[in-house]
Design a protein that fits this description.
about 50% helix; two-stranded antiparallel sheet
């Protein structure tokens, strides 16, 4: 870096950061099942499902569908959601099997997992936080192997 260049002042936001922000959002504003957000117009911060909370963490505001995110936020959203799915695949696998016994999807759907009638807000918040911790633990730092 040349002396005239300004060094970056902030570290990049990681998928773990976004998952922790989503968990914090759910703690502060509530958890929801069935859709991304509770159907309300009286607040800009409605209760959200896990995917909706990740979307808010990425965009900084409510988005009705991930396709509404700009390119950078969409990339962050898909990466963070993928980290969450990887975590769910290893800790709480839910597989969809068709009537002939064939596997329909090899990955746990964060939407189905969130919307399970036996799911609790604390389970969702804990899973988001644990997925973030796992992602951090799998990252190589300092050039180590």
């Amino acid at each position: 870096m040349k002396a005239t260049q300004n060094p970056p002042t902030t570290a990049p936001v990681t998928p773990a950061d976004l998952l922790r922000m989503a968990a914090l959002y759910l703690r502060r504003h509530g958890w929801h099942q069935g859709t991304y957000y509770a159907n309300t117009t009286d607040t800009p911060t409605p209760s959200a499902c896990a995917a909706g909370a990740i979307g808010i963490a990425c965009a900084g505001h409510r988005v009705e569908h991930f396709s509404q995110l700009d390119a950078d936020a969409l990339a962050d959203y898909l990466t963070a959601l993928g980290v969450f799915v990887d975590y769910l695949d290893t800790t709480a696998p839910v597989f969809l099997i068709d009537e002939d016994g064939y596997l329909l999807d090899e990955h746990t759907s964060p939407y189905s997992w969130n919307d399970d009638p036996t799911r609790t807000a604390e389970q969702v918040i804990t899973a988001l936080t644990a997925a973030a911790t796992e992602w951090d633990s799998l990252q190589i730092t300092g050039g180590e192997n």
